[in-house]
Amino acid sequence: MLPIDRHAWLRTLLHLGLVLGGGLLVGLALDQVWPALTLTALSLLAWHYWRLHRLLQRLATRQRLKPQGTGVWSRLDALLYRGQLEMRARKRRLLAMLRAYRAVATALPDAVVLVDRNSQRILWFNEAATPLLGLRYPRDHGRPVTDALQPLPMASWLAAGRHAEPLEDVASPVDPSLRLSLRLLPYSDELWLLLARDVSKLLRLEHMRRDFVANVSHELRTPLTVIHGYLELLDGDDHPEWGPLLSEMRRQSQRMSRLVEDLLTLSRLEARDQLPEEEVAMASLLATLRREADALSNGRHRIRVEDEAQVDLRGASKELHSAFGNLVSNAVRYTPDGGEIVIRFSRLPDGGAVLAVHDTGYGIPAAHLPRLTERFYRVSTSRSRETGGTGLGLAIVKHVLGLHGARLQISSEVGVGSIFSCVFTADRVLPRQAHSTEAAAP
Ligand code: ADP
């Protein structure tokens, strides 16, 4: 008990004693002790009930009165008053914080929409949601988000919930020239946060970059072909002193042609959202890969093809051939003479399929693996150039696989070798047709 509480109790007991003593004295004076004492006790009880009633009323009406007096009732008043003041201060602080958060969300250049997860209705949105998504107060407050954001493909997207992939490039419902990137953040069990960002400028820049690279590559193609043609015509035997010079010039012009072709291939892939889909006869594709590997290796490696999957793939033949060809070419180029290369096509337990190129080559230090598919990223620039690499092969592979909903897995150990695996999902796997099996026969 606090000393102040003890003091209040003492005051109250003193007060009780004085009142009862007063009653006793009056009783003695009137020679009516018991009636006088009973009357005093009843008055005391009535007074306490009255204080209790006042307290209840104050609590019910949330009245704030400065406490007066020193008894236990006044002490209770004082404690209540303090609690009320603290509560008010806390409420003010919370309100200030809430206003600050709202101000931040309102000032954001991105549209922020708060959606109730169960009813999928809009609970709140910031100012940017008006120019970007066309939402308006009070019309859209409480509306189902799928209605309010039509024609955006919200229904299927929201159905994916926590696993919804961001929609990277969708037209705004207000202005189709505005391109938006949409993200869904399920930040609690009841609420979803929908974020929309204007990416028109970014996409325009990306288009400009893509067009620029494509145009430059295209423009370089013709002069390079001409130079290449003339260099082929020049005979080193006519001018023996030019021999080494001519062969170096031929080598470099071939390298430039390969670079331009790879850049054009990448630009073409980047410009597409989808590739034509056909049945890719894997037996004949594996046979072609083997022939190409043999030609490139020229007997320097042992090369094996293991067709364990006995299925075909649904996709774009030309592009898949280019991707697998790049992996095979890398395996030959980065494996020293006498090494072994295995091209294995196998099934996965989930129904998918994997085309893996194993080699017993130089291997790649783990630190390089995450960046290997970046354009012009090379572990060893000199080794890549010596073997005629452009630094774009794996970037092309990644793009082709991405357009097939497939992924590239790389595992490697320095001095032991590498495995580059193209992993296809079950929906890309088709039963093998009889004619494609025949094509595989040697
Ligand atoms: P490049 O034309 O230089 O081969 P790629 O994009 O095909 O370009 O490959 C990028 C880099 O990855 C290569 O420069 C090489 O360092 C490394 N690399 C690719 N495949 C292999 C492999 N099978 N073994 C070892 N290193 C490899």
UniProtKB/TrEMBL annotation:
Gene3D superfamilies: 1.10.287.130, Histidine kinase-like ATPase, C-terminal domain, PAS domain
UniProt EC number: 2.7.13.3
Function text: Member of the two-component regulatory system PhoR/PhoB involved in the phosphate regulon genes expression. PhoR may function as a membrane-associated protein kinase that phosphorylates PhoB in response to environmental signals.
Main location: membrane
Gene Ontology MF terms in the entry: ATP binding; phosphoprotein phosphatase activity; phosphorelay sensor kinase activity
Transmembrane residue ranges: 12-30
UniProt keyword Acyltransferase present: no
Listed SUPFAM superfamilies: ATPase domain of HSP90 chaperone/DNA topoisomerase II/histidine kinase, Homodimeric domain of signal transducing histidine kinase, PYP-like sensor domain (PAS domain)
Domain of life according to the entry: Bacteria
Pfam families: HATPase_c, HisKA, PAS_8, PhoR
Location within or outside the cell: Cell membrane
GO biological process annotation, one example: cellular response to phosphate starvation
PAS domain boundaries: 97-151
Domain Histidine kinase: residue ranges: 215-428
Keywords: ATP-binding, Cell membrane, Kinase, Membrane, Nucleotide-binding, Phosphate transport, Phosphoprotein, Transferase, Transmembrane, Transmembrane helix, Transport, Two-component regulatory system
GO CC term (a single one): plasma membrane
Enzymatic reactions: ATP + protein L-histidine = ADP + protein N-phospho-L-histidine
Protein name: Phosphate regulon sensor protein PhoR
